[in-house]
Amino acid sequence: MTLQAQTPVTGGEKDHWLAVRPRLILASAFMLFLELALIRWTGSNIVHLSYFTNFVLLGSFLGIGLGFLRVGRSRRQPYYSPVVLAVLVVVVFTFPVTVDRNTEGVLYWTSLSTSGPPAWLILPVIFCAAAAVLMGPAELVGRCFPELPRLEAYRYDLIGSLSGIAAFTALSFLSAPPVFWGLIAAGCYAVLLVPRPRALYVGLVAVPSLVVVGLLLAETLTAGAIWSPYYKVTTKDATSPELRQAGIPITDIAVNGIPHQQTMPAGFRLQFEQQYGLPYERATNPPKDVLIVGAGSGTDVAIALSKGAGRVDAVEIDPKLHELGMAIHPDKPYDDPRVFTHITDGRAFLERTDSKYDLILFALPDSLTLVSGASSLRLESYLFTEEAMKAARARLKPGGTFSMYNYYRESWLVDRLASTMQQAFGHKPCVDVVNVAGQQAVITAGLTAADQRCAGEWPGAAPGTPAPADDDRPFLYLKDATIPPIYLITLGLILLVSLLAVRAVAGPYDRMRPYADLFLLGVGFMLLETKSVTGFALLFGTTWVVNAIVFAGVLVAVLAAVEVTRRFRMPPLPVMYGVLLAGLLLAWLVPNEWLLSLPVPLRAVAAVTVAFLPIFAANVVFAKRFADTADATTSFGANLLGAMVGGCLEYASLLIGYKGLLIVAAVLYVGALALLPRKTIAPV
């Protein structure tokens, strides 16, 4: 028989004007919406977060876990949350971290100098602030749990989370600036926090909310600021008086404070930057059908047209960069009837298209950001694997060529990419290092060796060059199979701070000891979610739409598990653990190559089955176990803290690849089974 133990209602929640169910849905939606907004907004103003996007995610998980653990220990409303949010916004506005545009060099994993506080100072501030901000909504969610049966409360929590994802996705689709995020946050605080006493409410809720909305409005009104689903995009006229007199306009485009692109006439670009013309010089025949991946604001497209292309397929992942190109590029390349634009992920386009090309060009596809929810996967990571270059080779016409160019901070990166191309094409490519100091390089391979014209033979990769990146470990910029010290130190500090925070907020650790298995379930679930995000990114693209669908799909699978557990008599927990481990084994055995070979509809069905079967089984296990706990908020908080540890543990993928996370998850789930209290093994 399921236990429905209740804990005393705290904080006067019985007197809240909003009934418990809608209040729980709203608080859960607000919690997830605020988490997503913080990840996007802080990353747009603190350049370090472009490379540590899960830093805010980890802080959010810590805060959410602490919020649940705080339930029952305080009768006060969590007025601290809007205050800390306002302080965070003020700090970020006062001390933004941007790239110093006056320094020489190329941004490559923050290799350019930055202005503002150093990473070691600002990142801990962001982490702690995110935890404190999210602790408030989580406490409001947690206070609703004792008023409802376990699984019913969890059900409404999931429905609210899905609503939060839907709201943020809709605003991303509409390219809504952050002032709308601030207005939603202010509205949720106003509805959810009880206004007693009134003076305290005004001082700790209304005033901080006005500060947040006011500052975000000022940012929104900043000249040239455009919000895409990935970045804050800003433009600046960079035309010198001499060029303006000559009728040559130049516009600088920066994303999240990082110099990213320039719009200028194609002829002017070719005159001063040799790399843009080399792919056409290395081809044996003038290319007529051209595919450009990373078309951006259109300069590479304009160059292809100037070289005589009869058709250009321009692939760009960011719709706002494409719109900027349409609006401000002096050559108006996107207005040319020979150009066909595709707003999608480059690797996904290669896998789906049936077209063949004379030239496929990867045109500086450096995204400068990571996929949300994955600690080390950049938007372009799957473009630079051996499998991706084989996919490009398969899309070439007889006599066709494949080329890429970029600025590379290290010579071994040039050698790694060249050797990857050699593996994919079966012969040495042409390698032109245009600027030795900046490692500006163009790497070109013909379909056969006879289809390329090299200035000289590439001598081959230098000793010590890492092996080509592959789809399981798509970490081009990681030279060795290791976790960089900066990550190890940062994660160690995160865990230390988390231990201290849990002790300070929740009291003795003994309180959570009975729920050690739920903690491990949280760790394992986070690894499954990471594997799902990265797997779907490979199969369907790293676009924000795919990412949003995956997160929503995970929550739908969890909700389905809860509903099934609520309505039907499920097998005993050891049996469900067996189903879970079988699902992990299936995910291990099914190769990505096979999934990629399927037509998109069948690929979607197969991918959903493989990815969501273990997620469903894991959450049936959690639902059955959670329904039988004596303390709903403490057990749920332990599970959420486990998810935070799982977010740290996902960095193990740098060592063992994303597929290896399945093994780690399996070990964790076996550990959770071993820690399962004996009384819960019998059928419930």
TrEMBL record:
Among its keywords, does the record have Transmembrane? yes
Show the stretches that span the lipid bilayer: 24-43, 49-72, 79-99, 119-141, 153-173, 202-227, 486-506, 544-562, 574-590, 602-622, 658-676
Sorted alphabetically, which keywords does the UniProt record give? Answer: Membrane, Polyamine biosynthesis, Transmembrane, Transmembrane helix
Note whether Oxidoreductase occurs among the keywords: no
- Please cite one Gene Ontology biological process associated with this protein: polyamine biosynthetic process
Q: Which PANTHER family match?
A: THERMOSPERMINE SYNTHASE ACAULIS5
Name-wise, this protein is Spermine/spermidine synthase
What organism is recorded for this protein? Nonomuraea jiangxiensis
Q: What is the lineage of its organism?
A: Bacteria, Bacillati, Actinomycetota, Actinomycetes, Streptosporangiales
